[in-house]
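Sequence, please.
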């Protein structure tokens, strides 16, 4: 299976996230300057198979495109020209997280039934999810991720790894930004 690569396009920087090869989990990949993103993606795709690009579709509350679509549309056209064999889809991102969280918390203590209901509310393909969960490669990938988390000393979520720093809990934007800046400079600070 190939990865799915998500793109959060901004006027100066582009945020990238990618699934694992089994498309079970997604993690942040990098933040790249706009003028470097297509070259970055070409190098990444040469190393890792990608089957789909997902671009967040910025909509206003009334359903109309937001002003940022004037920047996203030309980028998406360039992306399709450079990588014509990779599917490109837009995802309306206005309410996905909010709806899933609301459905889970409204249902009380999470169990299999309330999690399934929240997933359905968020638009998850339940048949595909059930098939994926039954795949023994999924269990192996989860065990691998859990082992890596234990090695890194991660015991909860959210947890962030920036260079050699481990940040646990809901850290502020300023602390996370500083950790990323330190990582880009090559600072050897380890934080627990």
């Amino acid at each position: 299976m190939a990865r799915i690569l998500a793109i959060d396009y901004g006027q100066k920087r582009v945020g990238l996230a990618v699934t694992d090869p089994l498309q079970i989990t997604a993690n942040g990949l990098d933040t790249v300057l706009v003028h470097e993103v297509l070259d970055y993606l070409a190098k990444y795709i040469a190393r890792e198979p990608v089957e789909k690009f997902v671009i967040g579709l910025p909509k206003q509350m009334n359903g109309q495109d937001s002003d940022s679509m004037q920047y996203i549309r030309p980028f998406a056209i360039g992306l399709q020209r450079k990588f014509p064999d990779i599917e490109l889809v837009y995802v309306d991102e206005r309410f996905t997280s909010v709806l899933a969280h609301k459905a889970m918390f409204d249902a009380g203590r999470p169990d299999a039934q309330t999690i399934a209901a929240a997933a359905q509310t968020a638009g998850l393909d339940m048949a595909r999810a059930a098939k994926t969960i039954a795949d023994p490669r999924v269990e192996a990938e989860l065990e691998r991720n859990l082992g890596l988390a234990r090695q890194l000393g991660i015991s909860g979520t959210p947890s962030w790894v920036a260079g050699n720093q481990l940040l646990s809990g809901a850290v502020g934007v300023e602390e996370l930004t500083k950790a990323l800046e330190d990582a880009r400079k090559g600072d050897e600070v380890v934080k627990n």
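The two ends are 34 Å apart (CA to CA).
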